[in-house]
Design goal:
By secondary structure, this protein is mainly beta. About 5% of the residues lie in helices and about 55% in strands. The protein starts with 10 loop residues before the first strand and ends with a strand.
């Protein structure tokens, strides 16, 4: 009688904790300062291979209407057809396609970012994931911090106004920062 060897896997599933996940952005305003904002409704899943992080994968969805910049008129404009057009495109999404180890505790996560039904390849510089830790309610958590830069025009976000003194009202380069906690499924 033969016994089949069952390979041991170190793959675990982790769900984004929406209460502890933010997607922040900053973009130049009038070419002199940055406007910062965030999306507060982030969901998704990480399939993490602890023995080989390059075999992992992550997907995330952001509710476009959860954008907030601390200025209601600007938020309304960002939700309009000039920018995110949340009525027609209610979500932004990311799906990883390739993960590389970039150093101790650092990864380069390449994937497809979709905004307004336009998908472009981006690379996130990721710190983490952190070692697992137990929270007071018995959940096991890990966290990551990630950054990337995009050109908003690549995603159809082309609205702008020329300034009287030269230049433009809204810069094209957008820095995106993600701070996310995951709970083990």
């Amino acid at each position: 009688m033969s016994t089949l060897a069952i390979p041991q896997t170190s793959t675990t599933t982790w769900n984004i904790d929406p209460a502890h996940a933010t997607a922040e952005f900053k973009v130049k305003h009038m070419m002199i300062a940055h406007v910062k904002g965030q999306f507060s409704k982030v969901t998704g899943v990480l399939i993490f291979d602890e023995s080989d992080p390059t075999k992992s994968g992550v997907e995330a969805t952001i509710e476009a209407a959860s954008i907030e910049t601390r200025e209601p008129q600007r938020d309304a404009h960002l939700k309009s057809a000039d920018f995110l057009y949340v009525e027609k495109y209610p979500t932004l999404s990311f799906k990883s396609t390739d993960i590389k180890v970039a150093g101790d505790g650092e990864l380069k996560v390449q994937g497809d970012l979709t905004i307004r039904d336009v998908t472009r390849r981006v690379t996130l510089a990721v710190e983490g994931p952190t070692p697992p830790t137990k929270d007071p309610w018995g959940n096991t958590r890990i966290a990551i911090s990630a950054t990337t830069k995009i050109n908003r025009q690549d995603f159809g976000l082309v609205w702008n106004v020329a300034l009287e003194t030269g230049g433009i009202l809204v810069g094209d380069e957008v820095t995106i920062t993600l701070d996310v906690e995951f709970i083990k499924a």
